[in-house]
Amino acid sequence: MAATLDDVARIAQALPDVTVGERYGNRTWFVGGKAFAWERPFSKADIKRFGEERPPEGPIVAVSVTDLDAKDALLASNRSAFFTISHFDGYAAILIQLPKVTLRALTNALREGWEASAPVSKMARRKPKP
C-alpha cells in the first residue's frame, strides 16, 4: 500500500511537540521551531537537472537526518523509496517517494527526522527511563 501525505501528517503529528506550518508554500512539520519534514515538490530547476531521466513521481517528502553518514545509511536502506537530488548535496536530508515507501519505513524516517531536530530537553522526555 502506498503512503500518502495524510499518512505523513498522521505519523509526524503523533510525535511529541510537533507543530504544523508552511514554508515556501509547502506543509512543514516542526519540533522546537525547527523543520524536520516537509512536502517537497520538484521545482522547474530540479526537473531540468533530471534531463532525459524521468523524475520520481510524487508526492515527495523531505526529511532531515542527523548528519551525512545517517543520510547515506538511510539512502542505502531503501533504494526504491529514498533518494536525493543534487540540490541536497552536502545537506543532511533525504527525499521520500511516497508511492513507493512502506508505512514502516516512512515512520522510521520521520522518527529519525524528529530525533535529528528535537531539542535535547524534548529528547530526554521522550526516551523511556531505565
Q: Provide the helix percentage.
A: 25-40%
Radius of gyration: 15 Å
| Mean residue pLDDT | 89
Strand content: 15-25%
What separation lies between the terminal Cα atoms? 36 Å
Q: Give a count of the beta strands, DSSP E runs of length 2 or more.
A: 6
Structure notes:
This protein has a six-stranded antiparallel sheet with strand order 1-2-3-4-6-5, covered by helices on one side. The chain is built from five helices and six strands, in the order H-E-E-E-H-E-H-E-E-H-H. The chain is globular, with a radius of gyration of 15 Å. It is 37% helix and 23% strand. It has 130 residues and is an alpha+beta fold. Helix 1 crosses helix 4. Strand 1 and strand 2 form a beta hairpin. The mean pLDDT is 89. The protein has a single domain, classed as Aspartate Aminotransferase, domain 1 (Alpha-Beta Complex).
